[in-house]
Write a structure and sequence with these properties.
2-enoyl-CoA Hydratase, Chain A, domain 1; 11 helices; globular
Length: 266
């Protein structure tokens, strides 16, 4: 295996799609310091790259991500709780913030077990493709901790406060079929279909109106925290920005000519 293939995070470029792969398959992609730092950097890079118009986040091997590497965490605890939990602000929060706010769609290709911070990462993504055999769980209270990686917000907003409390306080495992039925969104496919389905979805989005996608992400994320009046004002401004793009003007011309529009992301 080359040094590149053994890196804790791999980034593949497929035309305008970037696939970010958590790459510790033998550890079920448990998050150690090297992987967390690499993930912060990789996500920031693809977010800033104008050539990337859609992103896939996935795991190598049979798991998506099982959360924090507890062996490393135990060693950090021995050095003091302050040091052990600095990773939340230094790694977990920036990872989720970048996923949720980057100006392009992010797809979680959940190829297997997805718990703890791994579940937080998946739910921060805009769209999800779930392996039918994946095991999902919050896991935090099982080791005497509470949520990180945005789970307290993403769960409650998606499935309601009551069920979110059940999943967090009881740590109950659940299936992708249940997740979709409850409102977490996404599509459930056979394990071998996760990669091609997520790539097809990402390529579709990468060929779309990037500016409109970015504005839509931002508007939806902000809506729950403000008044209807503020939302309407922001929508008007966002529509004006989208309306000034070549994508919008070209799409209107194509529609009137009964042609399929071609989007350039500008």
């Amino acid at each position: 295996m080359s040094s590149a293939e053994s890196a804790p995070v791999l980034v593949d470029r497929i035309e305008a799609v970037a696939r970010v792969v958590m790459n510790r398959p033998d550890a079920r992609n448990a998050l150690d310091a090297a992987m967390k730092s690499a993930l912060v950097e990789a996500l920031a890079d693809v977010a800033a790259d104008p050539a990337v118009r859609a992103v896939i986040l996935t795991g190598a091997g049979e798991a998506f991500c099982v959360g924090q590497d507890l062996g490393e965490h135990a060693a950090a605890l021995a050095a003091g709780a302050t040091e052990a939990f600095a990773t939340v602000r230094e790694h977990y929060s920036p990872i989720v913030h970048t996923i949720a706010t980057m100006a392009k769609p992010v797809i979680a290709a959940v190829n297997g077990t997805c718990v703890g911070a791994g579940l937080g990462f998946a739910l921060a993504c805009d769209l999800k493709v779930w392996s039918a055999t994946a095991v999902l769980a919050t896991a935090f209270t099982g080791i005497g901790l509470t949520c990180d990686s945005g789970l307290s917000a993403t769960l409650a907003r998606s499935i309601g406060e009551a069920r979110a409390k059940e999943l967090v306080l009881l740590g109950t495992r659940f299936t992708p079929v249940e997740a979709v039925a409850w409102g977490l969104g996404g599509q459930v496919v056979a394990p071998e279909a996760v990669a091609p389905t997520s790539l097809e979805l990402a390529q579709r989005l990468a060929a779309g109106p990037t500016v409109a996608y970015a504005e839509s992400k931002r508007l939806i994320a902000a809506a729950a925290q403000r008044s209807l009046e503020a939302t309407l004002d922001d929508e008007a401004q966002a529509q004006a920005r989208c309306g000034a793009t070549a994508d919008h003007q070209g799409a209107v011309t194509a529609f009137l000519a009964k042609q399929r529009p071609t989007f350039t992301g500008r």
